């Protein structure tokens, strides 16, 4: 988890020309990532245990939006139905960079024995199915929430802005029920 978060932040530092990257202050970033890692793991496990199908990511969207607001970001919800976008404005001029994470889960029954395994059920194609994060979207969301935490704590050194996009329905929208008209 830490490796992925550090990779995301390293790429971002190259794109946005962070003051901390120029001043060789990588130890500070490492410390912040290490400090947030337990939260990232906790968020990932919670999201894994409570997955939601495409365009039904209502609770996930609430959690993400609340987290971004707690960091002082401008937050827009209901984007493409259940998406969330957060804007972190740096205190220095610079580019706008976007980071994106998928939020939706799949109609798949989880068959592993872990404490945070999904037991969620939903209706898909008129059948009850299990729901799980089989593609890692729970990890994507948790890492992006962690990146938002680290970057918001370094706002004074941020040259530019970062848009955090939490995308719903990446796996495809749910099929519409067929309506038979007489």
SSE layout:
Layout lengths: L1 H15 L2 H4 L3 H24 L8 H13 L3 E6 L3 E7 L2 E11 L18 E4 L2 E4 L6 H17 L5 E9 L15
Parallel strand pairs: 3-6
Antiparallel strand pairs: 1-2, 2-6, 4-5
Helix pairs in contact: 1-3, 1-5, 3-5
Instruction: Show unreliable segments.
Output: 19-23, 177-182
Radius of gyration (CA) equals 18 Å
Structural class: alpha+beta
Helix content range: 40-55%
Q: Your description of this structure?
A:
The protein is α+β, with helices and mostly antiparallel strands and 182 residues long. The chain has one domain (2-167): Zn peptidases (Aminopeptidase). The protein has five helices and six strands. It has helices at residues 2-16, 19-22, 26-49, 58-70, 137-153; strands at 74-79, 83-89, 92-102, 121-124, 127-130, 159-167. The strands form two sheets. A four-stranded mixed sheet has the order 1-2-6-3. A two-stranded antiparallel ribbon has the order 4-5. The N and C termini lie far apart (55 Å). The relative contact order is 0.25.
Keywords:
182 residues, alpha+beta, Aminopeptidase, 4-stranded mixed beta sheet, two-stranded antiparallel ribbon, 5 helices
Concise synopsis of the structure shown:
40% of the residues lie in helices and 23% in strands.
